[in-house]
Amino acid sequence: MKPTKLTFVNGKPTLVSYDKVVRTENDKAYNYHRKVNDNEYMKFYHSTEWKHKRQEILERDYHLCQRCGMEAELVDHIIPSKDDWSDRLNSDNLQSLCRECHKVKTKREWMKHHKGMTRYMDINIVCGLPGSGKTTYVKQHMTEHDLIYDYDSLMCSLSGLNNHQTNHDIHDYIMLFFDQMLRKLKSEQTFNNVWIIRTLPDKKIDTLLSNYHHINHIVLITDPIVCEQRLREQKRQIEFQKVLNNFNGADFTGYRVVKNR
Ligand SMILES: [Zn+2]
């Protein structure tokens, strides 16, 4: 049998024969896109508007590279301007970088446009009832260079409470971080895997990331009696019946069911 490789065809991860060249197709699309936009693109980088903004950002960042702390030499769009043109003058999307860090970042962005050649990042959404063993599941399946977003552990570390109480003021901060994280993930291939641990599915995540990444949906099914017992043992104060009702009513279409103990 001929060996295969995983690559992107028309934006979808596909298994193709090992020697098939898919890269040129991606290149063509990318170059066409560039050509059409180049004119506006160059005009922007020569505009007074941009020069002023650039100076403002360097001063805001004290002329320090926001990645390594050395002297900054340029101002970078966190989400590349060609990916999100509307955000090109948004200070929140701009950062000062040194040339070396910019090179590393540009290489990552290049990889994003040539996914078939290198690797792509898997996004894994792991849902399940509280106490169903989500954190353990992720720990068992993660690799060495992964990002794990776990609402519960963020709540613990930000609130200083370790009995899994929910502080509603902190909840807002955790969600804010979640939104920012999704925004950043949208344009990067930094990790082998991203794990998003949550109780219920959230269509927003799929909408935001579907064009960019391969998303795996996993739902852990654990006997509710076992979950509740675990929560009691861990002294986690959760309105379990309410969560269970929401869980039973949620739409898990497209999710892979993993039976857990
Ligand atoms: Zn740097």
UniProtKB/TrEMBL annotation:
Keywords assigned by UniProt, alphabetized: Endonuclease, Hydrolase, Nuclease
Record domain HNH nuclease: where: 52-103
InterPro entries reported for this sequence: HNH, HNH_nuc, P-loop_NTPase
Gene3D superfamilies: 1.10.30.50, P-loop containing nucleotide triphosphate hydrolases (3.40.50.300)
Entry GO MF terms: endonuclease activity
Gene source species: Limosilactobacillus vaginalis
Protein name: Putative HNH nuclease YajD
Keyword Hydrolase on entry: yes
UniProt-listed Pfam families: HNH
Family the entry assigns: Belongs to the HNH nuclease family.
